[in-house]
Amino acid sequence: MGSIPAATAASRYAATALGQPGDGTPAASGEGAQASGFGALLERAMSATVEAAKASDRAAMEAIAGGGDITSVVTAVARAELALQTTVAIRDRVIQAYQDVMRMPI
């Protein structure tokens, strides 16, 4: 399996989290221009990860109460797990890049 560059993975994840096409190009927004930059990307990714975890919890609680089906619970948990794995991978790449920069000779 091939490796996807971190920037491409991050932009695809952000696009998916925002409900945009997965080609990495942001779709036009009717609310005005969104904040851009790496910090904004990380903020949106973290928000999407938290929302996926909350949706997973809601689906599980609904199933426990007898109101939901197991398919929706498994789907929600899988999405939350994927979002968390992606966020951790991005964090690891950022830390690795920071450490590489710190090791550079002046």
UniProtKB/TrEMBL annotation:
Location of the protein in the cell: Bacterial flagellum basal body
Domain of life: Bacteria
Phylogenetic classification of the source organism: Bacteria, Pseudomonadati, Pseudomonadota, Alphaproteobacteria, Acetobacterales
Keyword set includes Chloroplast: no
Assigned GO CC terms: bacterial-type flagellum basal body
InterPro entries assigned: FliE (IPR001624)
UniProt name for this protein: Flagellar hook-basal body complex protein FliE
GO terms, biological process: bacterial-type flagellum-dependent cell motility
Transferase recorded as keyword: no
PANTHER family linked to this entry: FLAGELLAR HOOK-BASAL BODY COMPLEX PROTEIN FLIE, PTHR34653
